[in-house]
Amino acid sequence: MIIIMKQDATDEQISQVVNRVKEEGLAVQMNRGNEQPIVGLVGDTRKIQDVAFQRYDGVEEIVRITNTYKLTSREFHPQDTVVDVNGVKIGDGSFVTMAGPCSIEGLDQIRETARMAKAGGAKILRGGAFKPRTSPYAFQGLEEEGLKYIRQAADEFDMQVITEVMDEAHIDMVAHYSDILQIGARNMQNFRLLEAVGKTGMPIGLKRGISGTINEWLNAAEYIAVQNNNQIIFIERGIRTYETATRNTFDLSAVPLIKKLSHFPIIVDPSHGTGVWDLVPPMARAGVAAGADGMIVEIHPDPVNAWSDGPQSLNEKTYLKMMDEVHILEKAMKEIHELKNL
Ligand code: PEP
Ligand code: MN
């Protein structure tokens, strides 16, 4: 349930409503970025009667949100949320690229990849130090050593870091070296992990689960948002279907759909979305055209010898060409938005 206050509601009127919500045993999250302040009721609102609030001065409307992801929904927050990663804005209408290797393999490798990434215009460096691998015998990541390398490389090239955290026990360590915590597809519904990363207050990149429905994904974001964390970035990385010609089926319709249902930004991951390097540039272009707020893409100085996900990684040449195309489309999208706003 949300309570939409009148545009000219006073602070005093808002506090009276907020106090009453608290007396009912519920928590509150406020949205003051909107023209009309919105009071979001957090918790089980089934027992609350609308009339209890209708008599308060300053109340315009009481809206029951029927879906279970209230704070994540557009109803609660009609305007777009912009995630701010130390000044790099995601969701402000620009297209932000995060690029880097699947795994951090060593200092030289991540420095060289950071150089490539930056040359193409990426502002955020990706790279896994804790890798969720199908086989327990596959390379599992360099862990803290890798985190140190990616931080050093990102600082050298004035970039931000996104890296995956797989386990609650490692949150403090991963947070220390990074700027965005990535929740991998396999952990989209690891609810304790979602709560714990939410509590850090850091930006969270939330990958869509391998078989995650849109509704499950939105509810996963709610686990983070309810911890008073509104710095959430959805990452569409493809879902498992009956198709085996690509690694996953890249669900581009998720981009406009998430934008309709939620206020948080969404970026695309055409690398895991296809699993095949030469399908990555066309799907990246499609991501820009679909209205994504950015992308995360795997690149490597020598994909053939990459320790993980080489087949879907772009080398310097193919990456730079893709980025030239992406920059052209970004400009075209700006023109399209201007037309829309006329
Ligand atoms: C990754 O980003 O390298 C990764 C493991 O992604 P996902 O969780 O989407 O499979
Ligand atoms: Mn990967």
Automatic annotation (TrEMBL):
Pfam families: DAHP_snth_FXD, DAHP_synth_1
EC numbers, comma separated: 2.5.1.54
Domain DAHP synthase ferredoxin-like, chain residue ranges per copy: 1-66
Tagged with keyword Transferase: yes
SUPFAM superfamilies: Aldolase
Top-level class of the enzyme under EC nomenclature: transferase
Keywords from the UniProt entry: Transferase
Domain named DAHP synthetase I/KDSA: residues: 82-325
NCBIfam families: DAHP_synth_Bsub, PRK08673.1, PRK12595.1
PANTHER family: PHOSPHO-2-DEHYDRO-3-DEOXYHEPTONATE ALDOLASE
Protein name: 3-deoxy-7-phosphoheptulonate synthase
Gene that this sequence comes from: aroF
